[in-house]
C-alpha cells in the first residue's frame, strides 16, 4: 500500500482496463494509459491533443448553435447517449437518469453510435 500512495484495493482497480466496453469509456483514454505506463512526456502530449480536440468540437457546436439561431432554427446540441436530463420530482433539481441502451450495445458489441472522442 505504501508504494501505491496508500490507496485501497478498490481505488487501485477502479481504472483497470476492461474488455468489450464502449470506445468512449474513460478507462480507454490514451493519455491516461500512457501515464499509467510511466510515459509522462508522451502522456502530456496526448493530453494536450485530446484537450484541443475537445475545444474544437465545442467551438464547432457553438458555431452551429449561432448559425441555427441566425436562421431561426432550433438547435438541440449534444445529446448524451445513455442518459437524459430530468427534473427530480422530490428535489426539483436537474438530474441525469439512465435511459437505456448501453448494456444492449455492449452485448452486441455495436458501438456505432459512439462519437470518436479520443
Can I get a quick summary?
This protein has about 120 residues and is mostly helical. It has four helices and two strands, in the order αααββα.
SSE blueprint and pairings:
Layout: H1 9-13, H2 30-36, H3 40-70, E1 83-87, E2 94-98, H4 102-108
Antiparallel strand pairs: 1-2
GO molecular function: cholesterol binding
Organism: Nipponia nippon
Protein name: Oxysterol-binding protein 2
Task: Tell me what the structure shows.
- The chain has 118 residues and is mostly helical.
- It has two domains: 1-77, no CATH class; 79-109, no CATH class.
- Helices cover 42% and strands 8% of the residues.
- The protein contains four helices and two strands.
- It has helices spanning 9-13, 30-36, 40-70, 102-108, and strands at residues 83-87, 94-98.
- The protein has a two-stranded antiparallel ribbon.
- Strand 1 and strand 2 form a beta hairpin.
- Helix 2 (30-36) runs antiparallel to helix 3 (40-70).
- The radius of gyration is 19 Å and the shape is extended.
- The two termini are 32 Å apart.
- The model has no long low-confidence stretch (mean pLDDT 93).
